[in-house]
Amino acid sequence: MSAGILGTGHYTPEKVLTNHDLEQMVETADEWIRTRTGIEERRIAADEVNTSDMSYHAAKQALDEADISAEQIDLILVATVTPDKPFPSVSCMIQERLGASKAAAMDVSAACSGFMYGLITAKQFIDTGAYKYVLVVGAEKLSKIVDWSDRNTCVLFGDAAGAAVVGPVTEGRGVLSFELGSDGSGGPHLYQEDHLFMNGREVFKFAVRQMPESSVNVIKKAGLSENDVDFLIPHQANIRIMEAARQRLGIPDEKMSKTVKKYGNTSSASIPVALSEEVKKGKIKEDDTIILVGFGGGLTWGAVALRWGK
Ligand code: UT7
Fold first, then answer.
1. Which domains does the chain show, CATH number per domain?
2. Model-level pTM?
3. Ligand 1 site residues, Cβ closer than 6 angstroms
4. Which residues neighbour 259 within 8 Å (Cβ) at sequence distance 6 or greater?
């Protein structure tokens, strides 16, 4: 047995904030945002909707898709940098709400790479046989930490949650290889004090190097070549960064997920939301080889080569 994804779910708030809406809020232009980032709109959670609410809805859908009951979950890992409050963790909040009576629960802090860190942590518990089912969620309400008067950042981010139930799958399927990394010296390029701050140019340079490199590394570690990749799900931060990874791997345009256009950058939610959407659209089929790859504040990064199916 190896560890794989048994079901996926996602939740995006109803309220849409378009580039044209932002033109009324800061000195920006739809044209600038689209050409520099690929983003056209993003979703913003209502005041009363918090990270735990979005996590709950995404988790519920993932459990349904996996056909696993909440009582069967051994561990809940929620990757987030925007928890409802410093503690209790979002994981504990959804443990109660889902009725996951036997689950351990903790949050994971690795910014936009959080879901990758959660997925790989889940894999360890499953590989050792300590746990059977781990619920991994990536969820953010970035709208509450964004400085809405800073055009350098406010046009980029959105709110969402994505989830995956991780558990044992047939040998040869599931996680084939992974890479996680960090470089704390880049911490000053992306952080939160009161608000989110980002040195976009520095993060951009890091990302266009790291995403292709990590993708190639996991492909090699899995004993595969770029031609074997059926689908690429990169962190949805900026279409130009995603394109750099896609072109380096020589993957056709239609084999890369591009939810950035409608959701913007949703940090730890971006990869599981994109994965869940592609699964529901029927774009990911049994035995497909897919690459998930992310980067973010820390700086951190993570990549996985995965063979789809139970
Ligand atoms: O998941 C977290 C990871 N974060 C990221 O992936 C972000 C990585 N970085 C980026 O995606 C890009 O660096 C940005 C989209 C943030 C910026 O794009 P860029 O092509 O690197 O633009 P720039 O920072 O070089 O700025 C170009 C110009 C500047 O004006 P000056 O100084 O040249 O006169 C900015 O002030 O664009 C200006 N600018 C804007 N103009 C209109 C910055 N933001 C805006 C805006 N609207 N929203």
1. 2-169 (3.40.47.10), 174-307 (3.40.47.10)
2. 0.97
3. 28-29, 32-33, 36-37, 112, 151-152, 155, 198, 200-201, 203-204, 207, 237-238, 241, 265, 267, 296
4. 236, 270, 273, 274, 277
